[in-house]
Every structure is written in structure tokens, then in C-alpha cells.
Amino acid sequence: MLSGAFRVYRRSVDGKYMILAEPGMRFTPDGYHDGVGEKLSFDAWSSDWREKDGIVLATEIGSEGRAHKKSVTFKLNEWELIANKDSAVLNIHIPRGSRIQMSDWQNSIKQAFEYFEKQSYLPKPVACVCRSWIFDPRLQEILPEKSGLVSLQKRLRLFPFVSPLGTRSGFYFVFGDDDIDLKVAARDTSLRRAMLDYVKNGGVFTGGGMIIFKDEIEQRFSIDT
User: Fold this and answer.
1) Whole-prediction pTM value?
2) Is residue 223 helix, strand or coil?
């Protein structure tokens, strides 16, 4: 199941997707989930959802993975609900090891859809989803635009997600220890240096999520970043 605090609509006329936050979710001023590390922002805001006469005013989640404080307005009869918390989705597991090529991502996701759609005893998946430290939008703030992680993120739709690890999502995979002492942590790669400097300056890493639909696989992985 999608099990996320958002829902997805698709516009009938052109197939455009729109991710909307469930109502009442608290976000920080920059659009991340509030309350990470048990710290509440004094200037946090709550997601909107107001519906009247077939018109909805709601909080959109941008493809960059942050909630937008300025609400969007749309007509329900022009958009179809594609996914919500109860929808069947494919969840990706990312193996540790060598770098995964973009073509591997594209082929793996495409083949997964094709396989599971043929299984008559299973519900048809509406999307492919992954929650991981590598989809934390903050990585785009600290890494070069042409880095592999940034290039991958820009090909996908991201959404806010809070890892059980709280403020150091990804540290285990990058440093081998979630609780490593920042003073003695290795700084032998650009990723390690960037993450350490970000945290030392008060930043946090909470992880993030991505979602992709079958009809946009080829288009998204052909993006020139």
C-alpha cells in the first residue's frame, strides 16, 4: 500500500499528475515535515484541503519533494484520483554495491510493472515507490548539480518522508554508523564532506520518497540533466 500522507490526481485532458498533501499535515517554512527530532517549528504551517461545489483548494507537493505553502485550486471533474494511502504500489529495494546506471533504473521499474500486472491474484499496481536517504531533497543543496544522486532525483517525483532514523538518515550507508562522532568521521569523499558540513551547521537529513507512474517511465529517464 502507498501508506503516505498524500494523494495523487491526474488531469483528464493532458495526463498531468499532481501530488497533494493530506489535510492537517504540519510542514516547516521550507516545506519539510515538521517535528523531526521532536523539534517543532514556531512558524510551521498546516496543509490545506477545502472542497466546495466541486472545487478544491489544497496543498501541493512539488516534484522537488517539498510542500508548497501557497495552495492550488482545481476542479474535481477535471482530475481523476489515481492514488491514495490505500492504493497498491510497487516498493523498490535498492541493493548496496556498485553504482546503478539510469538505464538499470528504467528497465527494472518497467519490468516490475509488466510482471506484476500479469499476476491475476494481485491488485494492479498504480505506481512505483521508494523511500530512502538518497531521495532527501536536501542533497540537492549540498551536492554538485551533475552528481549522480542529484541527477536521479531530478528525473523523479519526490515527496516528503521522515526516516525512523530521524535527523541522520543515510549516515549508516555513507559512514557505516548512524551515531558517528562528527569530529572523527571520515572526510575522504565529497559526499561525506558535504553531509558532515551540513549537519555541523545545524542541518538534518530525514530521507525522502519518490513515486513514478508507468506511463512516464521513458520520458522521465530520458531527461537531460
Assistant:
1) 0.89
2) coil
